[in-house]
Structures are given as C-alpha cells and as structure tokens.
Amino acid sequence: MxxxxxxxxxxxxxxxxxxxxxxxxxENLDKIFVPAGKFAGVEEFTNRKQELEFLWSLADQxxxxxxxxxxxxxxxxxxxTALMREFYRQLFMQxxxxxxxxxxxxxxxxxxxxVQLTLERFISKLFVTFAFQYGAFKSxxxxxxxxxxxxPAEQKQFFASCGDAFLEEQFxxxxxxxxxxxxxxxxxxxxxxxxxxxxxxxEAGMVMIDExxxxxxxxxxxxxxFRNITEWFQQPAEARWCPMVISGSAxxxxxxxxxxxxLARRFGPYYLDPFSQQHSLEYAFKLSRQKQSRLSEEAAAExxxxxxxxxxxxxxxxxxxxxxxxxxxxxxxxHEVYTFETTALGGKIRQFWDTHxxxxxxxxxxxxxxxxxxxxxxxxxxxxxxxxxxxxLEAEPERVRRVLKNLENADLVTRKSxxxxxxxxxPILAAYIEREYQTEIAGKSxxxxxxxxxxxxxxxxxxxxRVLGEAAELxxxxxxxxxxxxxVDAATVFHLETGCLRLPKFNKVxxxxxxxxxxxxxxxxxxxxxxETWLIEVKYRRTPVKLNEVEKFVRKLSxxxxxxxxxxxxxxxxxxxxxxxxxFDDEAAARLRELKIMHSDISGFNAxxxxxxxxxxxxx
Length: 620
Hints:
Rossmann fold; five-stranded mixed beta sheet
C-alpha cells in the first residue's frame, strides 16, 4: 500500500476495485460503526490542570500552524483516556478556532493479539468518527459533544442535516468505497481526513487517538494476517495545523513505535504522572459522593499512600466487591478493602495484574528467574544494577540482563541507564509481586503471607496522619494559587467585617517557611507572595484551636520585623490568615477578631474553593 498525498487521499475521485473483495451489504455495516462513547462528566474529572494547559498550548500553536505532535505515555489506569476525553470536551464546548477529533481504541485492544480490530473496522471507526465530529463541531448545533449514531441510516441522516454538502459527499463516498472493496483508497481517506479537510478550508485541528499501540496489530482479512499500520501516520503527524496527540498504556511498545522506527522524531514524549496527594484526596471524595460511601480524611490519605496516586487503583476501592456497607471511614476499613482487592480472586486490582501477567507470561518466565528478578526490584528502595541482582540470585549477569530486557518490554520495569534499573515505585505492583514471590517461589501459604501483610499494615497506620497533614498544606497551596481576583464576602469566609474582599493573584506559595531570628527558628506553614503577601497558619486537627495557639502565632509574628505592627499593615498588602479545620473556641475567635487576623474553618475554606472553582473538602 503506497502512502498518498494529503490532497489525493481525500479529494480525487475514488477508484473502486471489486474483483477480489466480497461486496459488503448495508446490514453488515452497522456492525463496524462504533459510537465514540460516553464522555466523562466534569464532576468525574479531577485536576490535571498542568496537562490540560499543555494541551491547550498545542491547540494555540495549531492556529499558528506550528504545533508538534505528542505521545502521552503512562501505564494503565493513570487517566490518559479521561484526560483526552476531557480535553476533547473542552475544545468542543469552549472555543471555535480548533476542530477537535477524538477516537479511542481501548475497547478494541482488550485482548492483545486476538482479532479485536480488523482493517475494515478500523477504517470505518476512524473515518466516520472524525467526519461526524467535524460536522457536529462546524454545524454549531450542539452545546456538548454528541454521541455518534450507530446505524448507517442514522449517520446518513446526520450528514444530510449538518449543512455541509461536501462532507455528506465524503461520507457517502466512504460507504461506497467499503461496499465496493476499495480498501486501500478508503484507508488513506480515513487516515488523512482530519489533516486534509482542515488544510483545504484554512482551519486548525487536533487529532487525538487513544491507545495507539492497538494499531500495531490490525487484522487484514484479505491476506489473513496482522499488520502494523502505525507507520502510515507519518504524514498526518507532521501536519502542524492539525497535530496528533496519541496515548498508549503499553509503555515500551508505544515508545518503540513513536520514538523509533519510521515515526521517529515525529512525536515528542509527554509522561503522565500519578495524582499528587491533594488530588488523590479530591478524587477519593468525588468517588465517595458518587457512591454515597463514608470516607474520612484519614482514610482518604491512607488510600493515597497505598495506591501511590494511581487513579484506577483509587477507583477500585469505591467499586470493590470487598467494600462492606459502603464504609471507608477508617484506615482499618481501607486495609480490609485493600487486602481483598490485592489478594482475592474477585479483586479488581488483582484481576488487573493477573491479566497483564498472563499476557506477558513468556516474557516473565522465559528464563525461569523472571519473578525472582522482579522481586529484587520490588523490595529495593533505590535503583539496582544488573550485576547486583545477578549476585543475589547467583545467576549469570547476561542471563539477568536478558530477563530485565524482557520485563522492560512487558512494561513491568524501567531502565534508568546502561545496566541500572529503577526500583518498582508502584506500591500495588510491588505488593502483587511480593505475594506472587512468597507463595510461588518461597513456598509460603497465602494465610502466612496475609498474616505478615496485616501486621505490616497495622504498623503503617500512623503514617496516614502524617500524609494527611502534608496533603492539607498541599491543598491549601493549590487553593491559594487558584486565587485570581475573585471577590468573596469577608465576614462569611474570614470573619472580618470589611464587606467584599478581592482574592489577590499569587505567583509563589512556599511551604514551611523557616526563618532564624536571634538564634531561634521561626516557622510558618505557608508564605504566599504576589499582588499581596500573606502568612498562613494551617491546623488540620480534630479539635478547635484554643487561645494559647493563637497567642503562640502572635508571638511568632512579633519577631518578624515587617510584621510586628501587623494590625496597622492589613491595608498595605500584608495579610494574616489562620485556618483551622475544626474552627476556634470562643476565646481564640475573640482574640483573632480583636487583632483583625483573618480566620476560617472548613466552611470558609470551602467557600473559597467554590469561588476558585476547585474541589471542596468534606465537612468534618
């Protein structure tokens, strides 16, 4: 199959060949058209502000015909699909300069290597989805992304009604090409549609393809073999007015596909990280509201610690068969669900990794020591050299090197450089490997493993409180950095009778600022600087702040030269804010009002969250 130019692929009269292909009937076509799928609602999407800003910057570059293409790379469950769906929704609803195109092949690659996606199905899914999205966006008839009609008859009706005769002609030509068996022309037509129609009309676009690695295994029924069709995206990837953003959870395969071979230098890598503490907590509380489950801040912090911030793992806690009475109110109850999810046959997390290990069994077991090598990386706390692993296993370094290469290709380990590999930082994967090793290699019973496992979890409960405290400051920083001139009622939010208060824009918020004055360390929780300067004290305890804690705060202020006369400085761009999760007792509140120090409890904090349009923290 020869690659066509962008114009030729779309706009020349299609040539049909019917001598070698069985004619496709309209009844058959309804089976190969797949709807774009439901889009994650705003209430289900958590943060990813930095990632969305990056994608918006690409859209802006597309309008200047200077946008590069990128590959979003992360392991399964990290939220790639949710990010791309949300960005597609935002592009569709919030602007008119860039035409958004989005298609996901996640469902088509659930069983890798099986006949999940035929060449004809790929052609129809790609072309019809993109043509439909173009028509829906340009027609201006929709306030939100509509779903693709399933039946060709409904699709014909849509294209006839969108007011674009040329687009309707292209759709009918696509159907005719498939029916006549002109697979080659229909293929080029589909791949080049988005970049070519936007070029012809002087528009900008953005093509998003989710789970791009699935396209390395497309079944061509004509020749009864699988084909890698990713190389045919070379030309579309270079369309600076319509860049491609692709994602893939088979990390090593995607990197090999888009960073090497024929697609080399056409895609830049963009790695998607797990949630931070604050966003793990935000996501957990969103899920708890959706599922109407009980969840405390301590339990949410423990979920973050156990999952490392992986969105899919967090989701599993709230959809687990091991969740009793929808109760995740304590770290102990979180541990019960965690144990079920990681060890029981019905656990979604265990099924997740069982499936992956089954798919890559040959890579794990090819040298008979794969699991032992994985265990060394799972229990290590730092990077490990090949020679060190070989010494521990009393194996030849070259043999260990081959095993690690296989494990790297299976997306189980990551090489840092040369013969040095990163330790496994995914806590769930590390725990899974440890269980497999203890029961399969060390010969321990599952009961023995669970007993030791529970003992270790009990030891770690105390760290949840520490994580919660750190998360509270992170979330406060997130809130402060979201200030941008919004106005709030000072009495409601800060207990100051000054009417409306404008929230200043900060360009820097520092954590745990410590100053040494006269040999004494003076430490404040947060210092925010920008249009104004704020000093913030954060108390995230179970009891109200008392008068002695306020006086301690005042004594710290008295040692700071620029803040000694803080009562008179409130109107000069300097402010003090004391936040307490459980509020203040009467004496403490009276003292803060006397000193004109802003102070808030969780209700005031959430009022600021609403003003800044970020997620709220649940009431204690």
